[in-house]
Design goal:
- This protein has 2 domains: about 60 residues, no CATH class; about 55 residues, no CATH class.
- Helices cover about 65% and strands about 5% of the residues.
- It is built from 8 helices and 4 strands, in the order βαααβααβαβαα.
- The strands form 2 sheets. A two-stranded antiparallel ribbon has the order 1-2.
Length: about 130
Amino acid sequence: MLISIDDMRASGYCARGVKGWFDRRAADFRTFLHDGIEVETLLTIGDGHARKVVLERLQRDLRAFDLAGVRITTSPTDAGVLAEEARRAFAEVSEEAGEHGVSAARLMEVGGLGALWLVYLEVHSDG
């Protein structure tokens, strides 16, 4: 998932402040403006502000989906900040999962980046 300047603005940050944030981290603001930035990269170089932007982007994205009947049966096996948080979120509800997985609604109740990332991956999966 790419985060854009529009996502930053939707989370309440102005372009000047975002530029300063990128400059303080020696990150390329011009490239970000043109191409966006992958969530993992943003979270790796970021802080609480980065987490807020990603969390709010996930919330906005997931509002567009009917999550009734969506079930998550496994957690990611890849590396990265979001995958690790997703594994923790899934572990938190794994006893409830059973053979049919855990409902997206339950993970939304758990909240946090990891839980929302699991739901995001499921609704955007090809399978």
